[in-house]
Every structure is written in structure tokens, then in C-alpha cells.
């Protein structure tokens, strides 16, 4: 069985680019994807919420796990290392498309794995620090942070730019719903409410 794992941290990011990268790799290497676990959640959340528990329960000996990069799997060096080593001990082959060095011999792979895991953790810390500094600077300048008062998160938020673009081309909300959401089972009234609440129409 071949399982793909994709994760993005915010609703402003897109899992589709990771899926496309994995599909292209599988096509080039005559692999068939049996299951895709897709998650839109921060790496700081629990393994259960990030579907890591489901992933470990699904994978068995001789299965293959594919992800675009190491950092998709965990929040820090030790978690990533432990997870990959646990999977390897189970007999699961792990493939990280942007880190092909990890597909070498066992000793070499473990060394490179440790280096990449460390760098991934440091990058996460750096991004968090930059975000914190940016928020503190904005607050010091008197800027209002977060969403406007009485505004809730919506499942349509990640598509705001796409919706705006279609509306700018005079595409009716009803047509946008048919194009993007009808097959997903989302309601037209929900999209219409979202557009009004976000002052898009």
C-alpha cells in the first residue's frame, strides 16, 4: 500500500501543490497511491489532530509513505526522528520528495535525517519568532490585529482570493457555487452568507 501525507499550517496555504508533486512522482515511478491523508493544521497540534495516529495505525510492513518533505510530519526534531524511526522499524519505506538523500543506506539516511529534522525545527522557530515580532510591531503602531469584531472563521476563507477573482469577472455567486462547491456538498446559502459577511458583494 502507498499512502501520501500532505499538510499545510494555515488556510492561506494549499495542499493541492503537495498532492500534485506526489502524483507526478508516483506517475514517473509507476506507483499507485492507495490513500491520501490531507490535513490543514499547525504542526504544533497533537498527533491525533494531525492524523499522525491514523497514519501509524494504517501503515503496515512493506507499505510506503510519501510526503513532500520531512517537516510535514512533525513539530520538532525529536518527534520527526522518532516517527520516521518507528515507521522504519515497522518495515515501512519512507520517501521525502524534496530530500532524496534520505533514500540511501540506513546509516547515511539516519545521519541526514537528523540534520534535516534539526533544520526543520530551527526554521519553524524562526518563522514563529518573525511572526511574533511582526505582531508586536503592528501592535506598537496601534494597528488592530485579527479579524474584524464579530467575524468568525469560515471554511470558505481559504478560497477568498479565488472568489474575489471570479466576482471581479462578473461571475454570479450562484455560478461560483456550482463551479467550486456543488460537488463538495456545500450549500449555496452558505457561500452567499460568506460573501455578504466578508463584504465581497
TrEMBL record:
InterPro entries: Recombinase_CS (IPR006118), Resolv_N (IPR006119), Resolvase-like_N_sf (IPR036162), SSR_resolvase (IPR050639). The active site is at residue 9. SUPFAM superfamilies: Resolvase-like. GO terms for molecular function: DNA binding; DNA strand exchange activity. Keywords: DNA integration, DNA recombination, DNA-binding. Pfam families: Resolvase. The keyword rRNA-binding does not apply. GO terms for biological process: DNA integration. Residues 1-142 form the Resolvase/invertase-type recombinase catalytic domain. The keyword Transmembrane helix does not apply. Gene3D superfamilies: Resolvase, N-terminal catalytic domain. This is Resolvase. It comes from Campylobacter vulpis. The lineage of its organism: Bacteria, Pseudomonadati, Campylobacterota, Epsilonproteobacteria, Campylobacterales.
